[in-house]
Amino acid sequence: MAKKEKNIKKNKKRVIFTLGAKFSFFVALLLVTIMVAITAFLYNWMGQALEKEVKERGIAIAKNIANNAADPLIKNDDLPLAILTKEAVQDPLKFDKSINLNIDILNNILNIIKQGFTTSKQTQNIKNEGIYEAIIVRKDGTIASANNVRIIGEKYTPPAGVKKLSENEDTLVQDYTKGGQQYFDIAVAIGTIINNNKYRVGEVHLTISRSIILKVVMEAAIKIGLIIFISLILGILTSILLVNFLVRPIKYLVDGVKAIGEGNYDVQIKLKTNDELGLLTEIFNDTAKSLKEKELIKGAFSKYISSEVMEQIINDPSKLSLHGKRLKATVLFTDIRGFTSMSEKLEPEQVVSIINDYLTIQTDKIIKHNGFLDKFVGDCVMAVFGIPVPKEDDTIRAVRAA
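Above: the chain sequence. Below: its structure as tokens.
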């Protein structure tokens, strides 16, 4: 009894993960995997595409400066050179502040969301966004003009890791890192034609920060991620509704099984669907009906045969034959000696009471020895040993019962 109560408590404490929860979990996991994969793919693809576009734009700007800087550079006209370098670069302090990658990532994301999804967003017209520095270098290596006027006249020194533009190269794009930031150095030769001969008079160097690429890609990735996240939530909600619709018949089946376990064989599930659940429901209803019939048979015959024989019949109905079968059996007859003379001397109520007690004792003994109670005839009891299931010790059991 204690063990049974322990098992009941154990079952009550067991945590059940429903099919709906499992299905929703796997759907969410699948959608998250797809979301991460798509975001990563778009991040890489957009990064490469933007990097190519930024480099091409930088080269175009540098060539435009080179084309317009040749004559002023030869004539030592500093004003046009200053205008060219100034127009090529936006305010570097403002630029660095807007795309500083060292600030908190969460603040970056919140700012991107705020800018991307509010109607009060203020757009800024910043010319040549991403160009951090523009320098025009003379052929002798001195800086003729730069957006940073403090370095004008100094000797130009390429950043660490950047090669000088060779005489055979007109354009050179190189990546380098400075102060933890990544940049592109775009070098374009400044040339002029004198007497159909081309001469190099200097170089243009543009420094473009990779941060602008990361900024644009991050903005797009976060917006795409938000869209996919919303789709993920909608997908999970849809899967939950779908699973609840599909699992509802299983709940009916569970309730039906519980009812049968409690001894209620009249339970029938009214569910008509043209799928596996519908077939399972039909099988369940047939099983419940069959169990009910067996229980009725067991209840009807339990008064005449032992439970052991009854179980054998229920488990193997083929042992019963409606067409008759020749068997070797032992028949036991019992009655009360002098019953007629005794009954004449007693009141009818007393006779009925004695008969009931007698038949009850006889029935118990016959069933105890696995006999089949055939009939009562007055005070006579007829029992058969060996039907419907014959055994080798039928005769011995009949004698013992007698």
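Strands lie at 131-138, 143-146, 171-178, 181-194, 197-209, 330-334, 372-377, 380-385.
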